[in-house]
Write a structure and sequence with these properties.
Layout: H1 2-7, H2 15-20, E1 26-29, E2 32-35, H3 36-52, H4 62-71, E3 75-80, H5 92-103, E4 107-112, H6 134-152, E5 158-161, H7 163-166, H8 171-178, H9 184-189, H10 191-194, H11 203-206, H12 208-222, E6 225-231, H13 235-249, E7 256-260, E8 273-274, E9 277-278, H14 288-296, H15 300-310, H16 315-327, H17 333-347, H18 349-364, H19 372-378, E10 384-388, E11 391-393, H20 394-401, H21 408-416, E12 420-422, E13 425-426, E14 433-435, E15 444-449, E16 453-460
Parallel strand pairs: 3-4, 3-6, 4-5, 6-7, 10-16
Antiparallel strand pairs: 1-2, 8-9, 11-14, 12-13, 12-15, 15-16
Helix pairs in contact: 3-4, 12-13, 14-17, 14-18, 15-16, 15-17, 17-18, 18-19, 20-21
Keywords: Aminoacyl-tRNA synthetase, ATP-binding, Cytoplasm, Ligase, Nucleotide-binding, Protein biosynthesis, RNA-binding
Protein name: Tyrosine--tRNA ligase
Motif ('KMSKS' region): 270-274
Length: 462
């Protein structure tokens, strides 16, 4: 009871704990009493909502899970290995499910694989992972933990590291206590292994599903976790964990697994990639403006599906937006709402305001109200050139300093024709002087040639 009291989690998996927090048919959900009928209704609402959103793929025991969460709040975990120093939008797929359980009064546990991350998950891969140093794994773990706390808060949320228990298991204990409980035949039939048999799989990655199963067993025994959730490619690992708990704790143990559908775009490609690669949750790797633009640019064929999955909007509001896609797709109201909601969830409301301010400035060409930080975000992928601080005639600036124009003749012609904009303002005088201190705190000069060809001029300090 001590650990549970410290975290404020009241689950009642064991009858003695359960009775301490229940009187008659009254249950305590997140510290608030509610009737059993209300909890059952909330459970039905949650399951029905997840099904409507297309968020459930496979379950080990659908009716059993529905009955269990109708009785009391459950702890549910998702795992991720610290293979990089940031999470990306692909991770949001299980995280949004976890958040929905949290919103419904259940208790999310996030496992960061400090132990398994040093080995490598073969799921969804056709080749071996490159092993990372333990120092790199630990550094990544710290950064991922900070991102998770930002998404889930600190109340009724735990982050655990499987290095804490896996590192204490000797090779002999691993073979005797766990290896004996796994059939090679069953392991070979799991898709995660079977898909690699032709190309080859090392013994290290072959044992990954055992380690993940040990994680589930440990969390069941020590953190009262009853549910493991993951992507569709995790089904074999999840069911192996359920089987291990039943062998160790008995078939009556109330544990469940569920997976989330593989998310593909309408064109059949994998969700989560942009032209520049992965879309990261770290604002230093993918700026909030870029993040916003990723969602804003989603295909009409995908946007309703993403609204259901990645937002907490009501069914009625999503239905309205689906109708808007059909009747006025050119307005992109659904995409704009999607971008606003997901950006707010990951980066906060202020980031939405900034992203929309940058978008409007780029659309209108009026850049004068942007800050230096907003210029950095909005022009991250724009061609850039470095110049020294100072004042220079516009023709010399375009030809000698920035090489935007190939010759003085062409520069003069483009200036006189009104094709050159400096910091959002058209300049048609050949006598105009470009002053690097005139805008954006003296850090940048923005040159636009024609309608859309921008160059970011970075001013170097003397």
């Amino acid at each position: 009871m001590g650990a549970l009291a410290q975290t404020g989690w009241y689950r009642g998996k064991k009858s003695s704990q359960y009775n301490q927090h229940c009187i008659g048919t009254t249950f305590f959900v997140c510290g608030r009493p509610t009737t059993k009928t209300a909890r059952e209704k909330k459970t039905m609402d949650l399951i029905e909502d997840l099904q409507w959103r297309g968020a459930i793929n496979q379950q080990t025991d659908a009716e059993g899970l529905k009955a269990e969460i109708a009785k009391h709040p459950v702890s549910i975990y998702v795992g991720t290995d610290p293979t990089g120093d940031s999470l990306h939008v692909g991770h949001l797929i299980p995280f949004m499910m976890l958040k929905r359980f949290q919103e419904a009064g259940h208790h999310p546990v996030m496992l960061i694989g400090g132990g398994t991350g040093s080995i490598g998950d073969p799921s969804g891969r056709n080749s071996e992972r490159v092993l990372q140093s333990m120092d790199q794994v630990r550094a990544n773990q710290e950064k991922l933990t900070a991102q998770l706390v930002k998404l889930f808060g600190t109340e009724d949320f735990q982050v655990v590291n499987n290095y804490d228990w896996l590192s204490k298991i000797s090779i002999l204990d691993f073979l005797r206590d766990y290896g004996k409980l796994f059939s090679i035949n069953n392991m070979l039939n799991k898709e995660v292994v079977a898909s690699r048999l032709e190309t080859g799989i090392s013994f290290t990655e072959f044992t990954y599903q055992i380690l993940q199963s040990v994680d589930f067993l440990h969390l069941y025994k020590h953190n009262d976790v009853q549910v493991q959730m993951g992507g569709a490619d995790q089904w074999g690992n999840i069911t192996a964990g359920v089987d291990l708990i039943h062998r160790v704790e008995g078939p009556e143990a109330k544990v469940f697994g569920l997976t989330i559908p593989l998310m593909l775009k309408a064109d059949g490609t994998k969700f989560g990639k942009s032209a520049g690669g992965a879309v990261w949750l770290d604002p230093k790797k993918t700026t909030p403006y870029e993040f916003y633009q990723f969602w804003l640019n989603q295909d009409d064929r995908d946007v309703v599906k993403y609204l259901k999955y990645f937002t907490f909007l009501s069914h009625e509001r999503i239905d309205e937006l689906a109708q808007a896609v059909q009747e006025a797709p050119e307005k992109r109201e659904a995409q704009r709402t999607l971008a606003q909601e997901v950006t707010k969830f990951v980066h906060g409301a202020a980031a939405v305001t900034t992203a929309e301010k940058i978008s409007q400035a780029l659309f209108s060409g009026d850049l004068r109200e942007l800050t230096a930080d907003e210029i950095t975000q909005g022009f991250k992928d724009v061609p850039s050139v470095d110049v020294p601080a100072g004042q220079t005639n516009i023709v010399e600036f375009l030809v000698d300093l920035t090489h935007i124009e190939p010759s003085r003749r062409q520069a003069r012609e483009d200036v006189k024709n009104g094709a050159i904009y400096v910091n959002g303002e058209r300049q048609q005088s050949l006598d105009f002087t470009v002053d690097t201190e005139a805008a954006f705190s003296g850090h940048f000069v923005i040159i636009r040639k024609g309608k859309k060809k921008y160059t970011l001029v970075k001013v170097q300090e003397a």
